[in-house]
Amino acid sequence: MLRRAILLLPFLILCAPQLLAEETAPSTVKLLTVGNSFSANATKHLPGLAKAGGKTLIHTPLVIGGASMQVHLDKAKLHEANPKDPKGLYTNKRGLKEWLAADQWDVVTIQMASIKSHDIANYRPSASELRDYIKKFAPNSEIVVHQTWAYRVDDPRFTKPSEKPGEPATQEAMYTGLTSAYNTIARELGGLRIIPTGDAFHIADNDPQWRFQPDTAFNPKAAKQGELPNQKHSLHMGWQWKKGKDGKTTLAMDGHHANIAGEYLGGCCFFEVLFKQSCVGNTYVPKGLTAEDARYLQETAHKAVAARGIETATAQLTVAKQVVDSLTHSLRRARSTDATPILCLSDVASRLARSNLITSSTWRRSRFGTAVSITAFACGMDFLPSSILASIFSFSLPQVSPAPELCPSA
Fold it and tell me: What is d(CA 297, CA 279) in angstroms, rounded to the nearest whole number?
């Protein structure tokens, strides 16, 4: 048994990082976004982040301004009824069905129109119908929900709140509503993953050291052309002077759409969820954004993704290191004492049981987890209580008690 441990454990120790990295960090992602201007905002800087991260992104955006899931579903139904009806086609002259079948998409994202995102009733039944339609024509693709964000704190929706029942009167109320709705619909659709762009916006907007604060000294009614308030750390477009179709330049407020900072933050969230790799330290910084702000936004996106329990390759390599340390300790103990490899490997079980690794979904389905299981059994670990093994290796075993003579003190 000692000989088997000596032969197998070094192999597992050497292969652990590679096995987990291969399992958790895809190098290429084919992405189809079925969304609106918010999906366009959130993916604008995704290509730059992917390239700087050594990844390959193949992305086709299907964008309809202000569209809900129902709008995309209705367009698909029109196309089914009459393939030549221009109302059933996107600007690239294809219907949703053709785009779903056009490639082997790894991920297809869906989202709600932001103005309707706070009310779960707006997601039913269109979300489930759209999911079914996507699965019909792209059965091997993962459907992921993109959580959109709340409007800026000084958006007219909040400064001049509607009397309509259920309408959010504050940024916090909008975030709370949309988060509840997205969480609920993701569960109803089968436990879909969520890209937490809305969470990331909320974290930044509530950070005392970062959050945007309206310039109370600014009077938009008295502003002269070119004058703007202090909008430091805004994630939204905010106040801007725009030329209309009539040629006149007027002051307008856009508290909905993301500016460069918000777009970058959204891109970081997409990057982490799609490529399962931390965006912190990514060298891509778009023109108009400082390196310091980019770093903060990277860390904010990482925090939002981590809070959702979405594991990145970096997190999984940490898992590998912890397991490797335990395996190395066990092997050294077996060589330097009279303890059997069975009992030395029990150290691995006890250390994992004290960590969060046993609840890691990635661990349970990874090749590395399988390799640990095989090694453990090859070394005779089947003496351990079935409750420990089942929690670590995700299968059930008959309860077997260790023989007294195999239990020397540590």
Answer: 10
DSSP state of 83: T
> What is the Cα–Cα distance from 392 to 130, expressed in whole angstroms?
37
User: Residue 12: its pLDDT value, please?
Assistant: 53
> What is the structure's pLDDT at 244?
87
Dist CA 65 CA 78 (whole Å): 18
Region class of 406: left (phi > 0), else alpha (psi between -120 and 50), else beta:
alpha
Whole-angstrom distance, CA of residue 97 vs CA of residue 232: 43
Report CA-CA distances (Å) from 166 to 157, 163, 180.
Answer: 13, 9, 14
Dihedrals phi, psi of 374, to nearest 5 degrees: -60, -45
| Mean pLDDT per 10-residue segment, the chain (410 residues) | 50 53 76 98 98 98 97 98 96 94 97 98 98 98 98 96 91 98 97 98 97 96 95 98 91 98 98 96 97 98 92 54 58 56 51 46 48 51 45 39 34
Helix, strand counts (H, E) of the chain: 16, 7
Of the candidates 222, 282, 304, 290, the one whose C-alpha atom is nearest the C-alpha of residue 261 is 290
DSSP H helical ranges for 138-196: 156-159, 171-188
* Per-residue pLDDT at 402: 37
Q: Where are the alpha helices (DSSP H) in 45-170?
A: 46-52, 69-81, 96-101, 126-137, 156-159
Whole-number Å distance between alpha carbons of 409 and 401? 17
Give residues with Cβ within 8 angstroms of 135, minimum separation 6.
141, 143
